[in-house]
Target: 4-hydroxy-tetrahydrodipicolinate synthase
Amino acid sequence: MDMTNLTGSVVALVTPFKKDGSVDFERLEGLVDFHLANGTDGILVLGTTGESATMTDAEDLAVAECVVQRVAGRVPVIGGSGSNCTGESLRKSLELQKLGVDGLLVISPYYNKSNEEGIFHHLADVMDAVNVPCILYNIPGRTGCSISPANVERLSRHPNAWGIKEASGSISYAADIAHCLSDDFHMMSGNDDMVVPLMSLGAVGVISVWADVAPRTVHDMCASFLAGDVEAARRAQIDNLELIHSLFCEVNPIPVKAALAKMGLLEENYRKPLWPMADDHRERLYAAMRGAGLIG
Model:
C-alpha cells in the first residue's frame, strides 16, 4: 500500500507471546483486527514495543508476514529493520521488503554509536538498497546517539526517505529539524506525551504505544489537529496524560502488555530480561485505565 500520504496514528504493535515463550499468532491476528476496527492509520511491527531485540530472525520475519497478510493492504505496514550493524540492517530491510511491508523504520546505530559520517552512511546505505519508503528513527535515550540536525537535512533529500520518527523528547530538536519537512519528508512524534506539540511544528501524527490500548482516541486526536480543530486535539492530549505516563512508568513494553492483558487482548508474557511490573505500578496503570474508560 502506498504510504506517501500517511498521517495520523501508527501503532507500535506489541508481539504477543504464549506462556512457553513462542509467538502467539492467533492473538497477533486479533490485535491487527482490533486496530483495523478502531481507526489505526498504520501498523509498525518489530519495533521496541514489539520486543524484536529478543526475537530470532525467523520469528521477526514470521511476525511481519503474519501482519502483512492479515492487514491485506488496508493500512500501511511498516517493518522495524534497525540494527547497530549496518550490514544486518540492510539484510533485514531487504528481507522485510520481500515480504511485502510498505515501509521501513531504520534506527541510528546503538551501542557502537559511530561518528557523524558513519551514522549518515548507516542510514543512507539502507535507503540506497531498498525501493520502499524509509523512516529514520531518532531515539537517543535508547541508542546513546542522536541523528544530528545536519544529518537529518542531508538524509531528508534521499528519494527513499519518507521522514523521521522523532523520539528525543526535545521540542528544541524537533524545531531544529522542522525546516527539513516537506511534502516528501515528514515527521512523526515518537513520544505519546508530545504528539500535539510536535504536530504544531509540522508532524503529521505519531508512532504510538498509547494507540495499542486506545487506538480510536489517538486516531481522533491526530485527525482533529489535521482538520484544524486544535482545541479538541489539545484536550485529548492533556486529558490522557495520566494514562500515557502510566504506560511508561516502567520500561516499554512492560506496562502496555499488562494493560492489553487486562483488556483481554493477550496473555501477559514477556521475553527476558523484561519482567512483570511491580504491584504499585500496576495499581497506577489500572487506575489510569479506569479513568480513561478502558476497563471497568
Observations:
- Residues 178 and 201 are 6 Å apart (CA to CA).
